[in-house]
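In this supplementary section we document a worked example of the pipeline. Step one takes a protein sequence of length 135 as its only input; no multiple sequence alignment statistics are reported here. Step two produces a three-dimensional model, which step three serialises into C-alpha cells for compact storage. The input and output of this example are shown verbatim.
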Amino acid sequence: MIVGRVALLHTCDRPSLAQELNKRAASLGVVQRVLVEVNLAREPQKGGIAPADLPSFVATLRNLSSLRCEGLMCIPPAEEDARQHFRRLRELRAELGGLPELSMGMSADYETAIEEGATIVRVGTAIFGERPPKT
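The serialised model returned by step three reads:
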C-alpha cells in the first residue's frame, strides 16, 4: 500500500477509501496527507467526488486523525476549455475556508492552471515525452 510511502496522495474521492487510508496510516503511526479529487464535469470514466458532495466529504476527512486534507485536485475534460474548471476548483477551495494546495493542470494547460491559482501541476509529458502506445 502507498500509505506512508508518499508525501502527498493526489486522489482521495470517497468515504470508503478515506476510511481505509486512515486505518492504514494509523497502523503505521503516520499522518497521510491527501488531496481530494473533484470530478467537476461529472465524467463517468473519471474518479472524483461530485462538487455538491465536497463539503461533507472534507468534513469527514477532518474527523479522521491519521489523514490530513491538504487541498483539491482535478483533471478537466480534454475537449473543453480547462480554465473554467480550474476557476471552479479555486472557488470550491475558497468555499471550504481555504486549503493550501490546488493540484490542477498538466503539460498542455499548466500555464492556465497557474494563472487560476494552481500550487501543483503535473507535467510529466513535457519532461519525459509522450507515453508509448499500449500494446
